[in-house]
UniProtKB/TrEMBL annotation, chains A, B:
InterPro entries hit by this protein: aa-tRNA-synt_IIb, aa-tRNA-synth_II, aa-tRNA-synth_II/BPL/LPL, Anticodon-bd, Anticodon-bd_dom_sf, Pro-tRNA-ligase_IIa, Pro-tRNA-ligase_IIa_arc-type, Pro-tRNA_ligase_II_C
Cellular component annotations (GO), alphabetically ordered: aminoacyl-tRNA synthetase multienzyme complex; cytoplasm
UniProt cross-references to HAMAP family, sorted A to Z: Pro_tRNA_synth_type3
Domain annotation Aminoacyl-transfer RNA synthetases class-II family profile: ranges: 60-298
Matches recorded under PANTHER family: BIFUNCTIONAL GLUTAMATE_PROLINE--TRNA LIGASE, PROLYL-TRNA SYNTHETASE
Name listed for the protein in its UniProt record: proline--tRNA ligase
Entry keywords, A to Z: Aminoacyl-tRNA synthetase, ATP-binding, Ligase, Nucleotide-binding, Protein biosynthesis
Classification lineage: Eukaryota, Viridiplantae, Streptophyta, Embryophyta, Tracheophyta
Organism of this sequence: Striga hermonthica
GO process terms (BP): prolyl-tRNA aminoacylation
EC number: 6.1.1.15
Catalytic activity of the protein: tRNA(Pro) + L-proline + ATP = L-prolyl-tRNA(Pro) + AMP + diphosphate
Molecular-function annotations in GO: ATP binding; proline-tRNA ligase activity
Length: 499, 499
């Protein structure tokens, strides 16, 4: 790749074309496992729930990170790094919080051959690691806001079945932890960050999400409230939490004694937020856009936006002119800021290469053969809709750039259309039950009662759960009743299958 | 910072000025602990050997990372991410290698309340995590070179006394892992990476290093040879390994069965390298440049290169004009690409602010008072040599840029001069012993015998060890004898106190 291999013409081109054995519509889970492996994003590992993230995946992660990091820098948020390991004392300080994580915590009890005096946890999240220092650093109102972020790994030992990117024992994330003098500032930041998460999903990954609020049952352990960007997978009927922005209120501040002297000279608790997005983003992108040919990458996050493939074999006598043209095309595209490369490998056929880059989801494949060369054109194939377009060499850069924009746009629109077509408004338990069985994204008026939500989950044998109450609430006409309890409804809420 | 606080004029300015209680020349270890804490790089943590890295430290790490990452991208090296956790089976596969790390490995034995069936290690390094996949991915000569890098954390439970950045239980690093068809390619890459490490130290951190080769006793466990950039701390007389670039030879390839079919159709082992630099870089920078006033940051890595401080208090009636000028100066500097900020806090005095930013090591402090304003100038103070310079406002940007360049250059030159003045060439045991007691960086002809090196360490009660044999070897005149064994010398080698 990106280099020429001198033709060893005697070699065979019989490398078998790799295809997926499962269909996305028929067997979603198997399809997903196959596509992340064959698309070269993931390798399975000998510890369940741990995965190898290959460069094809990490490059996408890094593109999102660059965007997000630049945005939070504008908000004056600073990067730091707190330890991976946390003592039981620290971890157990906040009871509600640790209760949420306790079953998932990995404990280190030995170093070399020696037993540790006390077991030490691997961070499942860093609230209890960081907040003792917040208490130390914050004294007066001028120390506020304190806005920190770190990029790191966390470990949560899941008992549920692991799924690459989506539910794993270790994952990468950013975690933001901030403290403010007033609730208003904290509330505003929760929304600012939520908007960045929406942009990551919608503008970069082309995955439509709903901005909403989690119910009391599903909010972050120890938080005042949890805002979320919620995605939906039409093929499986699952709602998936995309990222959360939590207002912690003053709860942790009381526990960790994070106080400041306000302008009146009184010592008061700070208001805190925490917010995170994880490598789950990558899994959602694959689930939403992938098809039976493999990955489909949105151009904005693809480390390779266009792959140029010579439509001749190196057996043919005229291959050199085509190879030169491939290199010239890539040079042109690269200089115009398009991420492009060529595939001049001589031991793979044109068909094999097309299928290979299709599996890896490259947004645009550009083929060029002897006839194309004569006609001063190339043949482009869009990964999103398989459309083939002849492009005159004269305005190649401009048209490639346009095509990439269209692919990005189209992926989002198609995904949104699919998601929206799954939305079913229900008013009664019967309608709810039917919609759930049809794998719909259910939208229902609800009484906002914790017990009723638990009851819904019980009545569906843990099959259903609330996803979020959208921030943008439609009006609730006088007399509207909760679909589940029959009590007066107070908010519209999304429900779906529980992943 | 960077925002104005509206003057609460009744407040006192009695905040005590923080100074160091230890002197670098008198009590180096205490001085170092104080300076990393008071300079706001580090906070101590309740688990020994773990430290909180504050934004002031992480921002330096990120500047180096940006440079290094751009350089290895040019070499076609790709980022990936392998798991934190590794099974005992994987870890123990390579005997020589694990023997080097076994006493330092942290073991997870419990998740939540459940005992794991088999203990799982936290990576001390990732050779045994990655190489089973190298074996899978590499089949033919066209799969080579395979060049991966990851940015991550590793854990090594040190029995020796921990020191922030320098020797810690968890640290951040990049680890590169590459495979080649030939030894020649591997050898070349070892040197290319070593040159990048030299540039990080010399061009960015202004820390002089010696490029050399480790002895057999000190090479990376399981490697063929280890190249190093070696730094020296004049105040303590310690040599410190700055970063290593290892050629692993074919040793791991045999163990992990990493083979490729060469052009003759034979299955042969690949040649491998691994290389890493860590957050130790930050500690070395502090140790070399810091002084009794606190940190001294080289401009190229300082997240804040110039701090602008109004030389009026907000009690005075004319402060507004000065405050406005401070903001204008920062705007000018920032637009010219200089990392600048102002400190308009009204609850700290001019003296306090000067001392504060001096402690934090900001390369240039720019003060401006009413008289300065009238004379259209500012007063700059260099952190490296305390020189005060009046700069006419008219060519502020140009002069600030020049000053920053000079500071960077001067820090390196002063550090190199200090280091060089510690070098002592010795030819006999008596000279060696004397130089060691004087904390010198000892340069001696040596017989390159492992047993002799162990003997040197024993004879000095573990006080001395070899640092490296410089790649650039002076000639060894006929008849030159080893300083320790009296046998014929074969190479020049640096020795020093063992940290």
């Amino acid at each position: 790749m990106g280099t020429r291999s001198e033709g060893k013409k005697e070699e065979t081109l019989n490398e078998p074309i790799i295809s997926l054995s499962s269909r996305k519509d028929e067997n979603f889970e198997e399809w997903y496992s196959e596509v992340v492996v064959n698309g070269e994003m993931i390798e399975y590992y000998d510890i369940p729930g741990c995965y190898v993230m290959r460069p094809w995946a990490i490059s996408i992660w890094e593109i999102m990170k660059e965007f997000f990091y630049a945005e939070i820098k504008k908000m004056k948020i600073k990067n730091c790094y707190f330890p991976l390991l946390v003592s039981a004392d620290f971890l157990h300080k906040e009871k509600d919080h640790i209760k949420g994580f306790a079953p998932e915590v990995a404990w280190v009890t030995r170093s070399g051959e020696s037993e540790l005096k006390l077991p030490i946890a691997i961070r499942p999240t860093s609230e209890s690691v960081m907040y003792p220092y917040f208490s130390k650093w914050i004294r007066g109102h001028r120390d506020l806001p304190l806005q920190f972020n770190q990029w790191c790994n966390v470990v949560r030992w899941e008992s549920r079945k692991p799924t690459p990117f989506i539910r794993s024992c270790e994952f990468l994330w950013q975690e933001g932890h901030t403290a403010f003098a007033t609730k208003e500032e904290a509330d505003n930041e929760v929304l600012d960050i939520l908007e960045l998460y929406r942009r990551i999903y919608e503008e970069f990954l082309a995955v439509p999400v709903i901005k909403g609020k989690k119910t009391e049952n599903h909010k972050f352990a120890g938080s005042l409230y949890t805002n979320t960007v919620e995605a939906f997978i039409p093929n499986s009927g699952h709602g998936l939490q995309g990222a959360t922005s939590n207002c912690l209120g003053q709860h942790f501040a009381r526990t960790f004694e994070i106080n400041f002297e306000n302008e009146k000279g009184e010592s008061v608790n700070v208001w805190q937020n925490s917010w995170a997005y994880t490598t789950r983003t990558l899994g959602l992108m694959v689930m939403v856009h992938g098809d039976d040919k493999g990955l489909v990458l949105p151009p904005k996050v693809a480390s390779l936006q266009a792959i140029v493939i010579p439509n001749v074999s190196s057996f043919s006598t005229n291959f050199q002119a085509i190879f030169d043209e491939c290199e010239a095309i890539v040079k042109n595209l690269t200089e115009a800021g398009i991420r492009a490369d060529f595939d001049l490998r001589d031991n793979y056929s044109y068909e094999w290469k097309n299928s290979h880059w299709e599996m890896k989801g490259v947004p645009l494949r550009i083929g060029i053969g002897l006839e194309d060369l004569a006609n001063k054109k190339v043949r482009a194939v869009r990964r999103d809709n398989f459309e083939e377009i002849d492009i005159p060499m004269a305005n190649l850069v401009e048209q490639v750039r346009n095509l990439l924009d269209h692919i990005q746009q189209n992926l989002f629109e198609v995904a949104k259309q699919k998601r929206d077509s799954c939305i079913r408004v229900v008013h009664s338990w019967e309608e709810f039950d039917e919609a759930l069985n049809q794998k719909k994204l259910i939208f229902a008026p609800w009484c906002d009662d914790e017990a009723v939500e638990k009851d819904v989950t019980n009545r569906t044998n843990n099959d259903a759960k609330s996803l979020c109450s959208p921030l943008d609430q439609p009006p609730i006409p006088e007399g509207t009743l909760c679909f589940a309890s029959g009590k007066p409804a107070t908010k519209w809420t999304y429900w779906g299958k529980s992943f």
